[in-house]
Amino acid sequence: QVQLVESGGGLVQAGESLRLSCAASGSIFSINVMGWYRQAPGKQRELVADITTGGTTNYADSVSGRFTISRDNAKNTVYLQMHSLKPEDTAVYYCNVRGYFYRPYEYWGQGTQVTVSS
Q1: 8-17: per-residue pLDDT in tens?
Q2: Mind listing the pLDDT tens digit for each residue in 17-56?
Q3: Which among 20, 22, 62, 80 is least buried, having the fewest CB atoms inside 10 angstroms?
Q4: Quick one: CA dihedral 33, 23, 104, 30, positive or negative?
């Protein structure tokens, strides 16, 4: 069993910051990419940022320069530091883990709500 435990969501005002964390535990090996997606009401889930084991990062244009993704490979944990939050960042944020161990795999967290008030 693999679990992705997310934390750090909440309600903040525009301009403030939040830090999300996601720890992967259980029988999980050879993680390649860890990332964050988000889904706002009535919208499709979209990539926010992801990071490879080697540290290569990828950001959505809408968050580039405001959000920073990082990971601790030893702890199988990924972080998303969010600065200068905007109301349009309001969404459920999902942790995502992809890798390969005999076959490709992908896991999702349960989601954490981020609400930014204006």
Answers
A1: 999 999 999 9
A2: 999 999 999 888 888 999 999 999 999 999 999 999 999 9
A3: 62
A4: positive
- pLDDT above 90 for 60: yes
Q: What's the pLDDT score for residue 82?
A: 98
Residues in the chain: 118
Signed CA dihedral, 100, 105, 108, 109: sign only: negative
Cα distances (Å, whole numbers) of residue 65 to 23, 49, 58, 69, 83: 24, 12, 12, 11, 9
CB 19 within 8 A of CB 81: yes
With tokens 């309001």, the residue in question is 90
Pairwise CA distance, residues 55 & 88, whole Å = 27
Q: Are 99 and 27 in contact (CB under 8 A)?
A: no
